[in-house]
Write a structure and sequence with these properties.
- This protein has 377 residues and is an alpha+beta fold.
- It has six helices and 16 strands.
- The chain has a single domain, classed as Roll (2,3-Dihydroxybiphenyl 1,2-Dioxygenase, domain 1), CATH 3.10.180.10.
- The protein is globular.
- The N terminus is likely disordered.
Length: 377
C-alpha cells in the first residue's frame, strides 16, 4: 500500500511521465456513416490498410466495427470506425475534434494535391507547435489531419496513390476540444502521467513516454463551443485509447483513477483483440486504456489476410447468419490485399485462435440483436 500511495504522490506533484503506466496511444475510435463509404475513403484517400472487419460488441443493433492501421498494425496507428447511420452525432466540445497522423517532412504539398484530386474539403496548410499540418473532412464529417514529423520512422501502408515517401506513419495524436483546460489537464497529468510540454495560442500539448508521434495529446481551448454528443453518432469521435502493457496494468490504472476520485471507471472489458477500461475525463472526452491481447489482430486471421474476413467474437458466432443479414455487404479494395495474400471475400475462419477469457464475466457475452444500421425514422 505504501508503494502505491507513493506513485500517486509522484503523479500529483512531479507532473511528469516517470511513473506513468501509459506507453503511448493505442487506438482512436470514431463513428462514420456508410460502411463502404468509410472503407473507400480510409483506404483510397487516407491510404490506410483495413486490418479487421468485425461488429460493435455493445448494444442491440448490428453495426460494423472496422479497423485501419499502418503497415505493421502497431498500437498508435489503429483507427477504428463504427459506421452509424442510425443516429447522427452532434460535433462540439468535450469530444475528439480531429485525429492527426504524422507524415514525412515535405509531404504536405502531396496531400494538398491528393485531396484536391479526390475533391476532399480541407482547411489549407496551417502550423501548430512549429509543425505544418493540413486538416480535411471525412465524408461523414469527421476531421482528420496530416502533420509533418520527420522523427517518426514507423512504416506506413502504401497504395497505388500513396507512396512510401508521403504515407501516414500512424497517429501523431488527437486534438481534444474542451471548454476549460484546468481539470482536463489535471486528469492527463495526475491520472495518466502525461507532461505538459507547450502552449501555442489556444492549443495545449501533453506528451507521455518520451513524447512525439503516438505519444501526444493536444487540448484546444474552446470556451464558447456548445457541448457535443457523447453517444454513438455518425460524424463524431467516440473515444481515444491509451496503450498499457497488460491486464495487471489496467487494474493498477483503475486503482489510480479511484484513489484520485475518478470513481466512474469501468470494469475490464474483453474486446477480443485487447482488454479495456474506460473513464470519462472532466472535459467530457471518453478515455480508454487498452492492453493488447495475445496474438493481437492476427489471433483469428493470418497476417497476410488481415481485413479480408468478416470475423465475430466466439460468443457471437452462433448468431452469424442473423447478424450478417442485418449488415450491408461491403467490398475490400483490391489494393488493400498484399500481393502474396489469397484473394478472399468475407468468410468464416474455421479454426480461430483460442481466446483468453481472463476478462470473462465483465463483458457482454450473448448476441441479442434487433436490427441493423438503418436511419431512425
Amino acid at each position: 500500500m505504501q508503494t502505491f500511495v507513493q506513485k500517486v504522490f509522484c503523479y500529483n506533484f512531479a507532473g511528469g511521465t516517470d511513473m506513468s503506466l501509459v506507453r503511448g496511444l493505442h487506438h482512436i475510435t470514431v463513428c462514420a456513416a456508410g460502411a463502404q463509404e468509410d472503407i473507400d475513403f480510409m483506404t483510397q484517400v487516407c491510404g490506410q490498410r483495413l486490418i479487421k472487419q468485425t461488429v460493435l460488441f455493445d448494444g442491440r443493433y448490428a453495426h460494423y466495427h472496422l479497423y485501419y492501421a499502418n503497415a505493421d498494425c502497431e498500437p498508435g496507428s489503429v483507427y477504428t470506425t463504427f459506421p452509424f447511420n442510425r443516429v447522427k452525432g452532434r460535433p462540439g466540445s468535450g469530444q475528439i475534434q480531429s485525429t492527426a497522423y504524422s507524415v514525412p517532412k515535405g509531404s504536405i504539398k502531396f496531400w494538398e494535391e491528393h485531396l484536391k484530386r479526390h475533391s476532399v474539403p480541407n482547411e489549407g496548410v496551417k502550423e501548430r507547435f512549429g509543425q505544418k499540418y493540413l486538416r480535411f473532412s471525412h465524408p461523414s464529417g469527421l476531421q482528420i489531419e496530416v502533420m509533418e514529423d520527420d522523427s517518426d520512422q514507423r512504416r506506413g501502408w502504401t497504395t497505388g496513390e500513396v507512396s512510401k515517401d508521403v504515407t501516414m506513419r500512424g497517429f501523431h495524436g488527437p486534438v481534444l476540444s474542451v471548454r476549460e483546460i484546468g481539470e482536463t489537464e489535471r486528469f492527463f497529468v495526475d491520472a495518466l502521467g502525461f507532461k505538459k510540454t507547450g502552449t501555442d495560442s489556444k492549443f495545449h500539448r501533453f506528451e507521455v513516454a518520451g513524447g512525439g508521434a503516438a505519444k501526444t495529446v493536444t487540448l484546444v481551448h474552446e470556451p464558447d463551443r456548445p457541448a457535443g454528443s457523447w453517444t454513438f453518432g455518425a460524424g463524431t469521435a467516440h473515444h481515444v485509447a491509451m496503450d498499457l502493457e497488460s491486464d495487471e496494468k489496467l487494474a493498477e490504472q483503475k486503482a489510480i483513477y479511484e484513489e484520485l476520485g475518478y470513481t466512474d471507471c469501468s470494469e475490464i472489458k474483453d474486446r477480443n483483440y485487447f482488454h479495456s477500461i474506460y473513464c470519462r475525463c472532466p472535459g467530457g472526452i471518453l478515455v480508454e486504456c487498452a492492453a493488447t491481447a495475445q496474438g493481437a489482430f492476427a489471433r483469428d486471421e493470418d497476417p497476410s489476410e488481415l481485413g479480408t474476413h468478416m470475423l465475430l467474437p466466439p460468443w457471437f458466432e452462433e448468431k452469424r447468419a442473423e447478424i450478417m443479414a442485418m449488415l450491408d455487404p461491403i467490398r475490400v479494395p483490391e489494393g488493400n490485399i498484399p500481393k502474396d495474400a489469397k484473394k478472399v471475400a468475407a468468410a468464416t475462419m474455421t479454426n480461430p485462435a483460442p481466446v483468453d477469457t481472463s476478462a470473462a464475466g465483465v463483458s457482454r457475452r450473448k448476441a441479442e440483436f434487433v436490427g441493423g444500421d438503418k436511419p431512425k425514422q
